[in-house]
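Backbone-to-sequence.
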């Protein structure tokens, strides 16, 4: 047994510490220290260096280092990256190193003591009376290494369990979302297609220098539009004309609700007669003694001509009833009808050939044309 121990010392050298077991325990401590520093995650970072750095830089230079294009792209995208969307980027504001440091460091647990126990057990076997250095020494070393490997596997599993394997996943997600120049270039191209130069030009119409001009132009166009409103009298069911020439009063018309600031362009008069009826027993018709008209005036004003009347008009057979008509004047009466007010109508110097000619269901109207400019 002593020969085996001496054989082991000859190959390993004299213990640096009090014993070979003490040296092995020190080695285990160093392994634990190395494991705590080179975690599985940190070891994974080394894999990130497995690429042609210069080629990547060259490719990145080709894709991204175009100041003129980026200046144009940034100008294009400035209005698209709203304050709310920019705030989403604040979600990435965290200290990765502090997050890693916060991962529990007591991952080895009590494995040091357990490993020391295994080493001590191996030493006892190596120095026991039944120990065969030719066969048992190799088996003991194999068992010892298997045990160490088992504890290393357990400790690595503990590390992965304690981190929940979430950190690599999080880093992978961040990498996928943010570190994809090709995708960003594609997205940039899509956005540029949507916000074309023509569409971007539409935004210029909102500029302080353009909007008032556009509004002024619109107001000018609206001011040129001609509007009209019709105003009608009440219906007078019977107006009687006879052979004595005299002015015959017609229903009055009230003009109201013409918009303030409106400019009256033209006003015409309208008369509607439901029917004509003769009660003279002979043919009856209107007599023109001069240049009679249907006339209009503002209350208290002066009558002016509105609708020209003709000799022999309104011809009605003896004791007959004939259909009525609507007469629309072609004389502009805007000089008298110039605002919201009440307007009076009459038949100037009215007379007929027989007594009497009855006018049924008479109504008078005014059509007012105006602009709002």
């Amino acid at each position: 047994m002593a020969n085996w121990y001496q054989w082991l010392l000859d190959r390993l050298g004299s213990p640096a510490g009090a014993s070979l077991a003490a040296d092995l325990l020190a080695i285990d401590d160093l392994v634990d220290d190395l494991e705590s520093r080179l975690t599985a995650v940190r070891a994974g970072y080394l894999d990130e260096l497995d690429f042609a750095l210069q080629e990547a830089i060259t490719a990145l230079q080709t894709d991204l280092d175009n100041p003129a294009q980026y200046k144009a792209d940034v100008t294009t995208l400035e209005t698209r990256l709203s304050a709310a969307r920019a705030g989403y980027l604040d979600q990435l504001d965290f200290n990765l190193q502090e997050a890693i440091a916060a991962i529990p460091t007591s991952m080895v647990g009590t494995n040091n003591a357990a490993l020391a126990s295994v080493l001590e057990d191996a030493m006892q076997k190596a120095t026991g009376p039944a120990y065969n250095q030719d066969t048992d020494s190799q088996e003991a070393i194999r068992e010892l290494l298997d045990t160490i490997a088992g504890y290393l596997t357990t400790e690595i599993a503990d590390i992965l369990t304690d981190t929940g394997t979430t950190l690599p996943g999080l880093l992978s997600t961040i990498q996928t979302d943010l570190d994809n120049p090709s995708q960003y270039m594609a997205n940039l191209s899509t956005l540029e297609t949507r916000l074309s130069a023509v569409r971007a030009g539409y935004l210029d119409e909102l500029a302080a220098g353009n909007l008032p001009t556009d509004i002024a132009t619109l107001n000018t166009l609206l001011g040129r539009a001609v509007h009209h409103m019709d105003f009608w009298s009440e219906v007078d069911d019977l107006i009687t004309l006879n052979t004595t020439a005299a002015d015959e009063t017609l229903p009055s018309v009230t003009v109201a609700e013409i918009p303030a600031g409106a400019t009256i362009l033209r006003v015409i008069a309208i008369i509607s007669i439901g029917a004509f009826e003769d009660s003279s027993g002979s043919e009856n018709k209107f007599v023109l003694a001069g240049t009679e008209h249907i006339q209009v005036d503002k209350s208290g004003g002066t009558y002016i001509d509105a609708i020209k009347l003709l000799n022999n008009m309104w011809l009605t057979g003896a004791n007959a009833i004939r259909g009525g008509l609507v007469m629309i004047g072609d004389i502009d009466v805007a000089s008298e009808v110039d605002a919201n007010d009440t307007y009076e109508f009459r038949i100037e110097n009215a007379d007929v050939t027989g007594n009497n000619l009855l006018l049924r269901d008479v109504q008078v109207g005014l059509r007012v044309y105006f602009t709002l400019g």
